[in-house]
Amino acid sequence: MTNKKIVIPTLIALVAIVAVAASPSVLAELGMKGHFKHQMDLPDLEFSEGSILVGENHFENLENVIPITDALNSIGDGQVLQIGLKPVQEHIVYGAKVLSDDTVFGVIVDAGTGDVLYKSEGKSIQEIEEKIAEMKTRFAEGDFGKFHGMNGDYKKFFGMHG
């Protein structure tokens, strides 16, 4: 039978490590910016008088947000793969991933005015598939950035037996 005096503190430590490792600063250090990458690479966006500030509480100004259908109409051509509200540069925006001509673009729409504030250069589907294949290979080989050698064996990593 497993000793609760060992398992519970180990699980708490594991949760703490995962929480710290998933923080934006740690992910940026590891080169795994993921979701936060778009905010780090953006130029200063030009917001207008109708733009909505985030405020102290991310939800306090949502009643002023334009309908999602208006944001979709602002994007124009292409198939919207993903869209959602998010805070960017202290304003509320719609962030979208759009597919057009076998290329995926990031698009930022002002959630107050409907103006397109930014459109990324985009990546081809082939480029994305190659990156996914590379990541799958690295993961299968146990390459997790600076966390080499664990190979998914958390019990060995934390000195647990059984």
Please explain how this structure is put together.
With 162 residues, the chain is of the alpha+beta class. 35% of the residues lie in helices and 21% in strands. The protein has two domains: 1-32 and 153-162, no CATH class; 40-144, Nuclear Transport Factor 2, Chain: A (Roll). The chain has six helices and five strands. Strands 1, 2, 3, 4 and 5 form a five-stranded antiparallel sheet that branches. The longest helix has 18 residues, at 4-21. Residues 13-38 have low confidence and may be disordered.
Sum this structure up briefly.
The chain has 162 residues and is α+β, with helices and mostly antiparallel strands.
Q: Order of helices and strands, N to C? A: HHHHEEEEEHH
Helical percent range?
Answer: 25-40%
In what range is the share of β-strand residues?
Answer: 15-25%
Number of strands: 5
CATH arch. level architecture of the largest domain: Roll
Sum up the overall morphology in one term: globular
CATH fold naming of the largest domain: Nuclear Transport Factor 2, Chain: A
How many helical stretches? Answer: 6
Distance between the termini: 10 Å
Radius of gyration: 21 Å
Tell me the structural class: alpha+beta
The largest sheet, given as strand count, sense and whether it forms a barrel, is: 5 strands, antiparallel
Top-tier CATH class of the largest domain: Alpha Beta
> How confident is the prediction overall: mean pLDDT?
76
Quaternary state, please? single chain
Low-confidence stretches: 13-38
Total discrete domains:
2
